[in-house]
Every structure is written in structure tokens, then in C-alpha cells.
Design brief:
This protein has 426 residues and is of the alpha+beta class. It has 12 helices and 9 strands. Strands 1, 2, 3, 4, 5, 6, 7, 8 and 9 form a 9-stranded antiparallel beta sheet that branches. Strand 7 (353-359) and strand 8 form a beta hairpin. Residues 1-14 have a biased composition (Polar residues).
Length: 426
């Protein structure tokens, strides 16, 4: 789990314009403005109704519900936005006999559905009403292609070299059934029902063209849960994401996105997502003292500051030593090993979710990180950092990589286009 990642600093959502109106002339948001307020009044008078409605004093469609990401743009949504409270990752395989034509029709359906749902509107057909009362809640839907997709669709010549298989790592305990896939979809939202609604719509849209290969659920801290916007914590209790690249960085676009002149042409303004299910061995981790945990990471647990001193954003002084001559940031500390300046400038934008999939028979929690990192080239981003972690990261004994995938995520669709159109119709 490279230190240069996990979360971006969360900023409050800004209420956005009214979504497109439905055929009856009343938008979901306009309806909510009246029905939601009425529900609060009925709750005060009728008891049972209020118990199931919003808490007393809540206002309909707060900033959290009204936040909206745009489907069309230079890049796909779900990459540079802040962390979302709820996420679903799902991979599909094309069914036997389905090829390029069926894949194009599927991406066209998925894009149309994603555009509507991200605007807070119902699915184009057979909507389940799960998100009927909610606003967009910053929903994002992101689509990518796995290495196997190109062989199944006869597009091998268009397969990017960056999709070459990732090397084996010593911490890998990979379950092939939960790895890879022809197609990958990332769904994120600030409301669990909105996220599930999108997942169900995407699954239904797959129809007879593709079947689910694997699916994973994740979460992050809800916006507004802290007194002020701050870097997120992972399930180990550490602030995680201090060193994430920022869109304001001069070389951000170059590091994270394929240039417009890049190859293959259909990947212009796209990115590559490495997806890893990383189990945290929490029982072992929690036996360590706070001081020992900080030595493993190289940062203070309370505020994320480097052990060399300062606050969370203070540059780490790797040469600073104590009175005995020992480095304050240990040589095998996770934060030291993952620094870009120690890895040839390798950088990736991490945007993960935590997960908890229950408790094993022996009482061990199946919990950890759905690691997602974005970069212009995984062979120059993820791979060199992970290789270095493999050789001596103190954190390695407390984590286990259990699933893996690498996906080419094309640039955003222009108005009137669907995601991947330049590949499938080029």
C-alpha cells in the first residue's frame, strides 16, 4: 500500500443545477423538494412515518445528496474526484460467442445508463426505484478493459503494451476467480443506496452479452463525519494518502493520464487502473504498540506527520537520526520505501475503498483495502514501487494481496459518444 496514496483531501460538495426533467415534467429533485419536506411534517404528527423518514431537522437534498459528477468530459469520472463513501467494483467476462459487435452495444447501453444515473435520473428502462428519493450523491461510474477483452473481440492489434501482465510479487496469494476480467466497472457514491442502484442497473444492462466474473464492495468515511476536511484513515487507523499526487501539480496530467498524442490513439486522455484486494492482518497489527506501528509506517498515527518531525505535509527528512545515530524514519518504513524520489519519480494516484467481508470461523476479520491506483503507465508507476516494497517493506508481514487486475480505462466520452467508442468503432 504505497504511502503516496489513499485519499485526497475531501472538500464539501457544491449543490448543482437541476437534473434533466422526466417526461412528466417533474424532476426527481423537484419532487424531493416537496415530498421530502412533507415527509418531515408527517413524521412530526404521525410518529411511525417520522421514524422511517429523515432525522428531525434534516433538510431535503443536502449538499451530500445534491453533489453531481459529470459523465461527459476529457477524462472518465471516478478518477480525480475525492474519495466516496460507498463503492462497488465488478468485473465481467463476455459470454461465449459475444464479440466486438456485442461489446459495442453493451458499452453503449452502459454509457447511457451511467449518464442518466449520475444526473440523478432513473435508469433508461426497468428502473428498480432503489434511488428514487435521492439526488445524484456524487455518483461516478467508470469503465475499463482487461487484457483478455482484446482477444475476445478480435482487437489484439489495439491492445496497449501497458496491459502486459503484472509480475509476481512475494506477498501475492492471488485468487484467480477474483482477478482480471474482460471488462471492469467502478461505481462510487456518497450514498449506499445510490451506489447499489447503479450496480444493479449495470448488471441488468449486461443482459446476455456478459456475465459477472467477480464483485467487491467497499466504503470510506462519510463526508462531513469529521470536524474539517482531512486525509482519510485506513482500517489500520493510519492517515493514508498524504503524498497523493494533486491535480494542481505541474506534472499531474503527465503522470496520471495518457497524453492526447499517446499510443494507442483510442487511449488518449485515459489512464490505467491497477486493482488489488489487499487483506490486512488486523489481529497481528493490533498487537503492536502505537510506537511500533509508527515505526512500520514511518509516520505518526495521530496526525500523519513524518517521524522526522513537523506536521502531515512536512517533507520527510530521511537523513535525520537520533542521538544513537539511528534514522528516525527506519530504513524499511513503508513511507520511506514508497517515496517517488526513491523510485525514479514513479507516481500513481490512489483512490481506494476499505472493505470488510465478514469474520472467518477462527474469528479473523476478512478486512482490508480495495486498492485502486491510476497512472499513465503501470510499468513505470505501480510495478517499480511494488517491486521495491517486495524487497523489504516492514508493512509486508501485516498484509496479503489476494486478488489483482489491470485495466485500460479510455478517456471520457464526448457528448453523443459512449465510452470506448473510438476503440470499438475505430
Amino acid at each position: 500500500m504505497p504511502d503516496q496514496s489513499l485519499s485526497q483531501v475531501r472538500t464539501p460538495h457544491t449543490p448543482t443545477a437541476e437534473p434533466t426533467e422526466r417526461a412528466n415534467g417533474i424532476s426527481r429533485r423537484a419532487l424531493l423538494g416537496t415530498a421530502g419536506a412533507t415527509g418531515l411534517v408527517l413524521g412530526a404528527a404521525g410518529g411511525a412515518v417520522g421514524y422511517a423518514a429523515a432525522p428531525a431537522g434534516a433538510t431535503p437534498l443536502t449538499a451530500l445528496g445534491s453533489g453531481r459528477a459529470m459523465f461527459h468530459g476529457k477524462h472518465q469520472p471516478g478518477i480525480t474526484e475525492g474519495l466516496q463513501a460507498r463503492g462497488h467494483l465488478v468485473a465481467f467476462d463476455l459470454v461465449a460467442g459475444a464479440g466486438r459487435k456485442e461489446a459495442a452495444a453493451l458499452l453503449r447501453r452502459w454509457s447511457a445508463t451511467a449518464e442518466r444515473l449520475m444526473a440523478g435520473e432513473p435508469a433508461p428502462h426497468d428502473d428498480t426505484d432503489v434511488a428514487r428519493d435521492a439526488g445524484p450523491s456524487s455518483l461516478t461510474v467508470t469503465f475499463g478493459f482487461g487484457r483478455s477483452f482484446f482477444g475476445r473481440t478480435g482487437l489484439e492489434k489495439q491492445r496497449p503494451a501497458a496491459l502486459d501482465p503484472l509480475p509476481d510479487f512475494s506477498s501475492d496469494r492471488l485468487d484467480k476467480a477474483r482477478s482480471d476480467g474482460d471488462l471492469w466497472v467502478q461505481i462510487g457514491a456518497d450514498d449506499a443506496l445510490v451506489a447499489f442502484h447503479a450496480l444493479r442497473a449495470i448488471q441488468k444492462d449486461a443482459g446476455s452479452a456478459a456475465r459477472v466474473r467477480w464483485q467487491m464492495n467497499g466504503f470510506n468515511r462519510s463526508p462531513g463525519a469529521t470536524a474539517h476536511p482531512m486525509t482519510a484513515r485506513n482500517l489500520m487507523g493510519q492517515l493514508d494518502g498524504t503524498g497523493n499526487p494533486k491535480p494542481s501539480d505541474a506534472d499531474f496530467e503527465k503522470r496520471i493520464f495518457v497524453p492526447a498524442s499517446g499510443e494507442p490513439a483510442w487511449m488518449a486522455n485515459g489512464s490505467y487502473a491497477v486493482v488489488r484486494r489487499i487483506r490486512m492482518l488486523l489481529d497481528d497489527w493490533e498487537k503492536l504498540s502505537t510506537t511500533a506501528q509508527e515505526q512500520v509506517i514511518g509516520r505518526r498515527k495521530a496526525d500523519g506527520a513524518p517521524l522526522s518531525g513537523g506536521d502531515e505535509t512536512t517533507p520527510m527528512d530521511l537523513e535525520k537520526a537520533d542521538a544513537e545515530g539511528d534514522y528516525l524514519v527506519p530504513l524499511n518504513a513503508h513511507a520511506r520505501i514508497t517515496r517517488p524520489d526513491r523510485n525514479g519519480g514513479a507516481a500513481m494516484l490512489r483512490r481506494p475503498f476499505s472493505y470488510h467481508d465478514g469474520i472467518d470461523a477462527d474469528g479473523t476479520p476478512d478486512a482490508g483495502l480495495l486498492f485502486i491506483c491510476w497512472q499513465a503507465d503501470p510499468l513505470r508507476g505501480f510495478v517499480p514501487v511494488q517491486r521495491k516494497l517486495d524487497r523489504g517493506d516492514a508493512l509486508s508481514q501485516f498484509i496479503r494481496h489476494e486478488a489483482s487486475g489491470l485495466f485500460a480505462v479510455p478517456g471520457g466520452a464526448a457528448k453523443g459518444e459512449y465510452v470506448g467508442q473510438r476503440l470499438l468503432e475505430g
